[in-house]
């Protein structure tokens, strides 16, 4: 999983496609959707990754966990989380569970570095255009 954490942000690159060819995806049900990539060798487009995150929130949580793990070594992971979340919000109607998870992540981002705050504000702005937030939120 640590290899996937480090390389998932490069999902649209040919290098990631080559890496996936050699990964034991049978061991991780969370990444079973990448099996098609193993045979085709095609990169994973952001729209497909965001769609998969909408279907399986554990993948969005994995991206969040990866962001937390890698943030000191690569501050650009905040941007990766933000673009995936923005893509998810652009192509899918946000469910309550997605909204709750995104809000939890946004709150943590807003307490972080300037890069984290920028990512959090971007996702928050998009989220507020997608759904009506109640007073308790």
Percentage of residues in strands: under 5%
Specify the biggest β-sheet: none
The helix-strand sequence is: HHHHHHHH
- Helix percent reads 55-70%
**Category by helix and strand content:** mainly alpha
Shape: globular
Separation of the first and last Cα atoms: 33 Å
Averaged pLDDT: 91
Stretches with pLDDT under 50, minimum 5 residues: none
| Spatial extent as radius of gyration | 15 Å
| Number of H- or I-type helical stretches | 8
How many E-type strands?
Answer: 0
Which structural traits does this protein have?
single chain; 137 residues; mainly alpha; globular
Blueprint (SSEs and pairs):
Elements (H helix, E strand, L loop, with lengths): L1 H6 L6 H8 L13 H6 L5 H10 L1 H14 L6 H15 L4 H15 L3 H17 L7
Describe this structure in words.
The chain is mainly α and 137 residues long. It is built from 8 helices and no strands. Helix 4 crosses helix 6. The radius of gyration is 15 Å and the shape is globular. It starts with a helix and ends in a 7-residue tail after the last helix.
Gist of the model:
With 137 residues, this protein is mainly α. It contains 8 helices and no strands. Helix 5 runs antiparallel to helix 6 (77-91).
């Amino acid at each position: 999983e640590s290899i996937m954490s480090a390389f998932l942000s490069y999902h649209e690159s040919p290098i990631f496609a080559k890496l996936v060819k050699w990964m034991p995806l049978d061991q991780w049900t969370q990444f079973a959707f990448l099996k098609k990539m193993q045979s085709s060798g095609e990169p994973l487009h952001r729209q497909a990754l965001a769609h998969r995150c909408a279907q399986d929130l554990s993948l969005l949580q994995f991206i969040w966990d990866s962001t937390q793990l890698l943030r000191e070594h690569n501050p650009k992971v905040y941007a990766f989380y933000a673009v995936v979340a923005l893509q998810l919000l652009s192509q899918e109607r946000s469910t309550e569970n997605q909204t709750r998870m995104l809000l939890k992540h946004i709150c943590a981002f807003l307490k972080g570095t300037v890069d984290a705050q920028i990512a959090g504000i971007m996702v928050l702005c998009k989220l507020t255009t997608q759904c009506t937030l109640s007073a308790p939120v």
